[in-house]
Structures are given as C-alpha cells and as structure tokens.
Specification:
The chain is of the alpha+beta class. 26% of the residues lie in helices and 30% in strands. Helix 3 packs across helix 5 and helix 5 crosses helix 6.
C-alpha cells in the first residue's frame, strides 16, 4: 500500500477520503406519473423522455397543482433510469424551461455537505457508461435501472468539495488543456447476480490529478 492511502471496499484511496453510497449522498426523486388525458395545451411543461432526446420536441403541459419535489429548473441534475442508450438514458443537467418531471426520470439532489453537483454528475455518468457497456446489443439498446441498485453504488469522496470540483472539471469538462492522466480514470462496475443486479464503484488513485488540478483552478481563481 502506498503511503497516504488506505484499503477500502472500493480499492485503495487517500486516507482522508470517505466511502459513501449514492443513497447516502444523493436523494433520487422519481417524476410524477401522468395519464394522456392530463396533457393540456396550457400550464407548466411536462418534461418527458422525448424532451431529453430532442430539445425541439414540443412539450405537453399540465395546469394543475404540482408538488415542489416534481418541479424542475434549469441547472437541476436529472437521471433518466429507463431509456435508450446514447440518447435518453442516463445523467444530464437540465437546460430547458421550468417544468414538471415525468416518471422514469429521477431528479437528483446531492447532499452538498458531502459532494458537489459536478462530482455527483461525474459519478452518475460513470454509472451510465458502465450500464451501457453491459447492455450493448441487448433489447436494441433499451436499458432500465432500479432505484434499489443505484442507491447501493459505493463511491469514495474527496475530503473537500474543491478537490471534487477539480476532479470533475478535469474528467467531465476537460478545461485544463492536458490529456487526462491515467490515474484520473475510475470505473463503476455493473454485474448481474442470481438474486438481483448489483452496482459498485472502484476508483483508482486520483491524488496526483487533483493536486495539480486544484493548483491550476486556484491560479485561474475558479475556486
């Protein structure tokens, strides 16, 4: 074991990092179920799978009362847990109008005491990629993930949100200008068992990356 690291269920991680799960660090709120007769031509837009696929697809609307937990604003983190790979399935940041979330899509609320929104997106994107790899060629690339599987995914969390932001910036947005170092890679594994499907994550060493990334972001006054 390298100095400064510890052995955990998800592999060797820096000693100051903690191991959490998606369920303990993010809240997943499923969208509301609507019937076709609920769709109107006025009211708040209903954000359906079709609207995730194509920003030009017209919205259905709902004029009735809506719970706050089903409301979506631009900048909210969403995860479509049932959909087609490469289009609707997976994680994204909503950039459309304020609306009502339809079923088959989670609104994701990261616990900001534990992790940043960008790091949460990074974790969910890794889940998405691994599920899509395992589902390659299966049912014409249509995939479906249970909430019970997602909330059990283990993830190591850097001790500061600045470190998380630096990792997410380097991994997701490629703003550094460098090629991604090998030690920045991590994976989430998707396996099929006899009784249920399990998800867990295994992160490789990220210390070298985030030390460099944090320094650069500070010089740029991003953090």
């Amino acid at each position: 074991m390298r100095p400064g690291y510890k052995k955990t269920e998800v592999g060797a991680v820096p000693e100051e990092w903690e191991i959490h799960t998606i369920g303990s660090s993010m809240r997943l709120i499923n969208g509301r179920a609507f019937r076709p007769e609920d769709w109107k031509d006025r009211g708040l837009p209903i954000i359906r799978i079709q609207n995730l696929n194509d920003a030009d697809v017209a919205f259905n609307h709902y004029p009735g009362t809506v719970e706050d937990r089903h409301r979506v604003e631009a900048g909210d983190l969403l995860f479509a847990w049932s959909g087609t790979t490469g289009t609707s399935f997976g994680a994204r940041v909503w950039s459309g109008p304020s609306g009502i979330l339809n079923q088959h899509i989670f609104k994701v609320l990261p616990d900001r005491r534990k992790l940043s929104d960008a790091y949460a997106l990074l974790v969910l994107r890794q889940v998405q990629e691994q599920v899509e790899k395992q589902a390659h060629g299966f049912k014409a690339s249509f995939v479906h993930v249970k909430k019970s599987d997602l909330i059990g995914v283990q993830l190591p969390l850097p001790s500061s949100t600045a470190e998380q932001q630096a990792i997410a910036e380097a991994r997701l947005f490629r703003r550094m200008g460098d090629r991604q170092p090998r030690q920045a890679r991590f994976s989430v594994r998707w396996t099929y068992g006899k009784d249920r499907t399990g998800l867990w994550s295994r992160f490789s060493s990220l210390r070298d990356l985030h030390e460099r990334a944090v320094q650069r972001l500070r010089r740029l006054r991003v953090i």
